[in-house]
Specification:
The protein is mainly beta and about 150 residues long. The protein is about 10% helix and about 30% strand. It has one domain: Immunoglobulin-like (Sandwich), CATH 2.60.40.
Length: about 150
């Protein structure tokens, strides 16, 4: 993504708190999850310690979209931890997390390596549930978050 386009996405996100455009052809807005290990200190959640993403727990409705925006100065990922109810103590990720994959929250997905200023593709919230995710690079920091779909 070009720096100009990334800046436009960030500007749009700052003008409309928590929302940027969903995929083309969709009339829905996407909830933005800010990705920044420096700004978002660890907090305790029901799944364990979470940090690096804001909000730490994102509540969304089925049919909505989420998008990750990296406002940090270095690369991060947001990658699903399939079937987890609590954050595993060790990183559950392989190098596959560095490549963008998946489009729905209930199936394996990763933003891939999001460089500074980049945003992810929109991920559809296709069913209710709790979905844990984390950063390939900084999982132990602890860079982890939760999406709760209802």
């Amino acid at each position: 993504m070009s720096r100009g386009l990334a800046a436009a996405v960030l500007l749009l996100a700052s003008c409309t708190p928590g929302a940027v455009s969903a995929p083309a052809g969709s009339s829905t807005q996407a909830t933005v999850i800010d990705v920044n290990l420096t700004l978002h200190a660890p907090v305790t959640t029901s799944a364990g310690t979470s940090g690096g993403y804001a909000p730490a727990v994102t509540n969304v409705s089925v049919g909505a979209y989420v998008r990750f925006v990296n406002s940090d100065s270095f690369a991060h990922t947001a990658t699903l931890i399939p079937g987890a109810a609590i954050f595993p103590s060790a990183s559950p990720f392989s190098a596959a997390a560095l490549t963008q994959s998946g489009t729905v929250v209930s199936q394996p997905w990763s933003t891939g390596a999001l460089q500074a200023g980049a945003s992810s593709s929109a991920i559809l919230i296709d069913r209710p549930g709790t979905f844990l995710y984390g950063c390939f690079y900084h999982y132990g920091a602890p860079m982890r978050g939760t999406i709760v779909a209802h």
